[in-house]
Write a structure and sequence with these properties.
Blueprint lengths: L14 H9 L15 E3 L6 E3 L1 E5 L16 H4 L5 E5 H9 L6 H18 L11 E2 L4 E3 L11 H11 L7 E5 L6 H12 L5 E6 L4 H10 L11 H9 L6 E6 L5 H9 L6 E6 L8 E4 L5 H11 L9 H10 L4 H13 L4 H11 L19 H18 L7 H10 L7 E2 H9 L5 H8 L4 E3 L2 E3 L2 H10 L7 H16 L14 H9 L6 H16 L3 H20 L7 H16 L3 H19 L4 H16 L3 H19 L4 H16 L3 H19 L4 H17 L2 H18 L5 H18 L1
Parallel strand pairs: 6-8, 7-10, 7-11, 8-9, 9-10
Antiparallel strand pairs: 1-2, 3-4, 5-6, 12-14, 13-14
Helix pairs in contact: 3-19, 5-6, 10-12, 11-13, 19-21, 20-21, 21-22, 21-23, 22-23, 23-24, 23-25, 24-25, 25-26, 26-27, 27-28, 28-29, 29-30, 29-31, 30-31
């Protein structure tokens, strides 16, 4: 199959340059405020995990951040124009280039190399959790809060987890805000040294999505394989018990029940938190409200003022009104501290709002969704209704309210303050985030900030949509997130699938159709495409195209670059599911739009022509395929010159088509040119080079040149085995080809 492409090319660094940038800073991010280690061992002994990127100081292509038109392509690809960053910082410096000048990045680079030089021969600092080592897979969140109470539950869970027998499914359930997540975070830290592996998943977007976000990339599981989940389970089962999988905030959806049922084959303990009493978890650990005396201890921990003996009756009454609900007690204490309120004054203000959760202690509160459906709805409504009354005491400025409402959009998990939230929210510092923490509306674990789902509900209910500038801020938030999300390093959307829940949440915020909603829908389609979910991506592309056409019709233009891109992606979806005639129609419309708006020799126009060639190839119209491939190749040769990855792709596609026509000598000519180019771009040890060698070998087989084919297969196989597990489809493909060749040579 021809290789399709939807993006223009860049003057990318060659492998030796990337290696030098990485090694001269000891594989540590060059941002002095970050300093994370970017490379370490993977689960398999002969593999490593890379979280870093060789970033361009001045952009690799026109219109990129800090682009310098005076540089030659060779200068843009040189060591002098590069800096080693973690992936988060790499996105941040490109998303906010005005705050990250060329001079600043060069200073970062120089200081990072100096730090690395000064540390040579000295012991490394201790590393934090969330790491993969040769003998342990450990992925669990930071935890900086000392738990109050829950000792008996902790002991029972700890005993169950460290048992060597495998497969227990344990449910920690209770209403929102009673501390289920805090219990399991504490448990994870206490058990880490006693188990052979541990993984923490955010279950809010679904268990399957959580597994994809945290594990498939780390363990080289190909999401485009239909049985990727079974492959993942088999990989995890290579770890000897005890091992534990935490799933935080899971609901009782059909999809989650199905996934958890499949995880019965996993020889790990599973510990889940939920507001619901999940029937498929047989070992339940209900979490009730805190005892009164522990609530007093919790309140005093977060209340900055002294509590006198004469204040005790007021404190007792506040605890009673709070229903001994953990999150509410903490929130009351922080509201009082922030407002410098004495306890009698706080009690008076609380009573004036009509806030009263005393009924939470009247009956057992083991789950927000326990009892009949009506009782479930009543309890949920009661909790949310009374908690929203506390918002009247929040004393938040309009700016902080807008900020709170924007963060409420995001799914519940920790977000790095400097590397994520500052960029997404357009902040110049983390001060507003820290202010919201002090006021009780955000949680903080070291560098990460999170908003509890109960608080998010309050923010959405209480902050009016007509708050000045809120709508504009939401659009700007989505726009910044969109820019940040683009896979700037390799162009592969598979790297970004972990942000699918955030993307879906942002899309849901826009009731009206607009350009940013269309762009977000298009990105979601690209994520699903990267996972092999082509049919699911198709309606998203269609919706994005419909919105773009409506938006641009207002300006009497239906041929914008955005429309061309939307048509191209929709066409690609039809192509992927085998509906070639529909694909052909949309590709032709995309080409028409692209030529009108971008002109003949634009890289995006070349990419569309290449995609058209791929459709004609599948339809068996090889002459038409060659015509479009040649036009794409001619255009990009003019744009980039000989040694560019796009040029290699188009030559590879031409070679495959000539092979189909049995014009093997011409096919080999194009394969060799593509291979020569890719060797210069990637170096010998890269999967793209291995793919070229495999294709070349198959054509040598067709020509009967078996010795040449055997050598190319050998080199391809050696390369694939460096990058992938033995059961990866690339490894299996080339080994099957080698087996066929062996039989042919035997005959």
């Amino acid at each position: 199959m021809a290789e399709s492409n939807n993006s223009s090319g860049r003057d990318n660094f060659l492998e030796p340059v990337k290696r030098l940038l990485r090694e001269r800073v000891a594989q540590v991010c060059s941002n002095p405020d970050c300093n994370v280690v970017t490379q370490g061992p993977a689960a398999k002994a002969e593999k490593s995990v890379n979280l870093g990127v060789a970033a361009h100081i001045t952009a690799a292509s026109a219109n990129g951040p800090r682009y310098d038109a005076d540089l030659t392509p060779a200068q843009r690809r040189s060591y002098d124009n590069g800096i080693w960053l973690c992936q988060n910082c790499g996105k941040k410096v490109d998303a906010d280039d005005s705050a990250h000048s060329v001079a600043l990045l060069r200073d970062w680079k120089a200081q990072a190399e100096l730090r690395a030089k000064n540390k040579l021969g000295k012991p490394a600092d201790a590393l934090v959790v969330n790491t993969i080592t040769n003998d342990k897979l450990l992925i669990y969140p930071e935890q900086t809060v000392e738990l109050i109470g829950r000792g008996e539950t902790m002991a029972l869970l700890h005993e169950a987890i460290i048992k060597p027998q495998s497969g227990s499914h344990l449910l920690v359930n209770g209403m929102g805000g009673v501390g289920k997540t805090a219990i399991c975070k504490t448990l994870a830290h206490r058990c880490a040294s006693a188990v052979n592996a541990m993984v923490w998943l955010d279950g809010q977007a679904g268990v399957e999505q959580g597994l994809q976000n945290e594990l498939t990339g780390r363990l080289d599981i190909d999401l485009q394989q239909a049985d990727w989940l079974n492959a993942l389970i088999d990989k995890l089962n290579q770890t000897q018990p005890p091992a534990v999988l935490f799933i935080d905030n899971i609901d009782d959806s059909d999809a989650n029940r199905s996934t958890v049922s499949k995880l019965q084959k996993l020889h790990w303990h599973i510990v889940a938190t939920s507001r619901e009493q999940l029937s498929h978890f047989h070992h339940k650990y209900p979490i009730d409200v805190l005892p009164h005396e522990l609530c007093i201890e919790l309140f005093k921990r977060h209340y900055d003022m002294d509590v006198c003996d004469e204040d005790n009756p007021c404190l007792d009454e506040l605890i009673t009104l709070a229903g001994r609900h953990t999150l509410t007690v903490e929130l009351l204490a922080k509201i009082a501290s922030d407002g410098l309120l004495e306890l009698p004054e706080l009690l008076n203000q609380v009573q004036q709002t009509g806030f009263d959760l005393t009924s939470l202690t009247d009956t057992e509160a083991t789950a927000l969704h326990s009892g009949t459906e009506l009782q479930q709805q009543q309890r949920q409504h009661q909790l949310h209704q009374h908690l929203t009354k506390l918002f009247q005491l929040a004393n938040l400025s309009d700016d902080l309210q807008r900020l709170l409402r924007l963060i409420a959009v995001l799914p519940y998990q920790g977000y790095h303050g400097k590397q994520q939230l500052m960029t997404w929210l357009g902040l110049t510092s983390t001060t507003p985030l820290i202010t919201l923490v002090k006021k009780g509306w955000l949680q903080r674990d070291l560098h990460n900030f999170a908003m509890h789902p109960v608080v998010a509900f309050m923010a959405k209910q209480q902050i009016a949509p007509d708050l000045p500038e809120l709508a504009d801020e939401l659009t700007a938030f989505a726009d910044r997130f969109f820019d940040w999300l683009q896979p700037s390093t390799t162009g592969h959307w598979i790297e970004q699938v972990g942000y699918q829940p955030q993307l879906e949440a942002l899309i849901a915020e826009f009731n009206d159709d607009n350009k940013i909603k269309a762009l977000l829908l298009d990105n979601l389609g690209l994520m699903l495409k990267a996972k092999g979910m082509f049919a699911e991506a198709l309606p998203l592309y269609q919706q994005a195209l419909d919105i773009m056409l409506a938006v641009h019709s207002e300006y009497n233009s239906k041929n914008s670059p955005e429309v061309a891109t939307a048509r191209n992606n929709l066409a690609d979806a039809y192509y992927r599911i085998g509906q070639y005639e529909k694909a052909l129609g949309y590709f032709k419309l995309a080409l028409e739009s692209g030529i009108k708006e971008l002109k003949e020799d634009h890289p995006d126009v070349a990419a569309i022509r290449n995609n058209l060639g791929g459709v004609y190839d599948e339809l068996g119209q090889y002459d038409k395929a060659i015509e479009y491939y040649q036009l794409a190749l001619k255009s990009d040769l003019k744009t980039y010159g000989e040694d560019h990855l796009q040029v290699a792709i188009y030559r590879n596609n031409l070679a495959l088509t000539y092979d189909s026509l049995e014009q093997y000598d011409t096919a080999i000519e194009y394969f060799l040119l593509a291979l020569k180019s890719d060797l210069k771009t990637y170096g010998e040890n890269h999967p793209e080079v291995a793919r070229r060698r495999n294709n070349l070998a198959m054509t040598y087989v067709n020509l009967g040149q078996y010795s040449q084919a055997r050598e190319q297969y050998r080199l391809a196989c050696a390369c694939f085995e460096r990058f992938f597990e033995p059961d990866h489809h690339y490894v299996q493909m080339v080994k099957n080809n080698m087996a066929v060749l062996k039989e042919l040579m035997a005959d």
